[in-house]
Amino acid sequence: MEASLKTGGKIHYAWVVMVAFGLVMCGSIGSLTVLAGLFFYPVSTELGCDFSTLTLYMTISLVVLALSMPLVGNLLTKVKIQHILTVAGILEVGSLVAMSMLTQPWMWYIVGAISGFGLAATSTVTITPTIGNWFHKKTGFAIGMVWAIQSIYDAAVSPILNNVIMTYGWRTGYLVLAAISALLLFPSAIFLIRYRPQEKGMLPYGYDPQVARAQATASLSAGVPWEVAIKSLPFFLCVFLVMLCQMTACMNQVFPTYAEVVGLGAAVGSLMVSAASICDVFLNPMAGATSDKFGITKSMILWTAITMVSFVILFLGMGSPVLSCIGAGINDAMYAICGVGYSVFALTLFGMRDFEKIYSRMASVGCLVASLGVPLMMFIYESTGAFQNVFIFCFLVDAVIIALVLLAAKTSKNLQWVDDEACAPAAEDHAEDIR
Predict the structure, then answer these.
(1) How far is Cα of residue 24 from the mean position of the Cα atoms in its chain?
(2) Cα–Cα distance, 176 to 97 (Å, whole number)
């Protein structure tokens, strides 16, 4: 069975799964969240409604996504992932087609709820365990590359789609986006992605069964049982960790408003968003690679510290377009933590045994809190009258995140891993990875 990058001159299929999941992310998360912003202005203008009235559908979609994550986590071990992703794709692409025909803001609310169900199935709840199954080594890097592929797609398609909207109208734009999404999503979901390498008669990338037996390490299905994890201190610490990371990962949506109120102007606000998007292409794989090389705990601390540096730069560069753009780009480190960091952290702490159930609950709470991120940042600004206080608040939150990482890593050493295949505990087998 194949367990390396190349076997007999062939690239390990794990890398195919990685690219395929990246394409699924392009046609789902990328199209329905990032590129959706291109439609807000033309749709609101034609319908004669406020931005806030229309964009409420995004909040509804995010709430439904969060509430649906535990359901997806339960289905992963019962239903083939290609079936889950195909149904999700139908809901997502169908939502884009439906939006091309809507005439009232409340109609977007209904479609947003429907798309939220689909987005739950094409999120970290499916990405992390699938990549975790396929990669025994370089797991973090592979997850980071999935997000990097989506970032490249967003950067490449955004100007094309914007031109379509300006030339042919937003209704045609939705149909074009739906067609692109379908072409990327369905072939990958149906024909390429499989949940476990065993379905193709393979072993994960980097897994050597002879070495594993010689070292008496745990099997690929070892981990903390769900009923134990849900009552443990590390689980609750990880829930708070996800909440805080998601809460402060909304800065990309805040930067345009920040630029306007401090006098930098809309153009600089747009450049700040572009800087963050460009950095996202590189930071996700880098975050994954550092977790593979130095351990996920050290990686989480490093990237959170980098985020703290970004808030210092933003605080000091209030009147500087250059410093503001540099700070915005570096600030994307928190997006890398949300995309790669805490999911790999949870995988390392709890193992694959019941990871779908464990992580889906963590991510669900985190996404619910994420819907409050922008309103919270705006409340801090409006109540204090200074955007510097937003950056101070986020800096302090990052300090708490580091403390939670250290405490969760330390207390997780007391968790009892179970290896069903070996019918014996495997508590020590993950200790080195937590470092």
Answers:
(1) 13
(2) 9
Q: Residues 239, 362: contact at Cβ < 8 Å?
A: yes
| Nearest one of 276, 389, 383 to 335, comparing CA atoms | 276
Please, which residues bridge with residue 135 across strands? 205
In the numeric block, the tokens 């997850």 are attached to: 143
Give how far Cα 45 sits from Cα of 54, 103, 169, 170, 223, Å. Answer: 10, 12, 12, 11, 53
Question: Please, what is the Cα angle at 425 between 424 and 430, to 5 degrees?
Answer: 135
Distance CA 234, CA 239 (A): 9
Phi, psi for residue 351 in degrees, rounded to 5: 75, 180
The pLDDT tens digits of the residues spanning 321-380 come to 999 899 988 988 887 888 778 888 888 888 888 888 888 888 888 777 777 777 788 788
How do residues 310-325 score in pLDDT, each as one tens digit? 999 999 988 889 998 9
| C-alpha to C-alpha distance for 422 and 312, rounded to whole angstroms | 50
Alpha helix stretches (DSSP H) within 169-295: 170-187, 209-214, 226-229, 233-248, 251-261, 266-294
Could you tell me which residues come within 8 angstroms of residue 101 by beta carbon, excluding any fewer than 6 positions away? 171
pTM metric for this prediction: 0.78
Q: In terms of Cα–Cα distance, which of 108, 97, 16, 112 is closest to 62?
A: 112
The C-alpha torsion from 312 through 253 and 284 to 324, rounded to 10°, is -30
Read off φ and ψ for residue 263, nearest 5 degrees. 90, 10
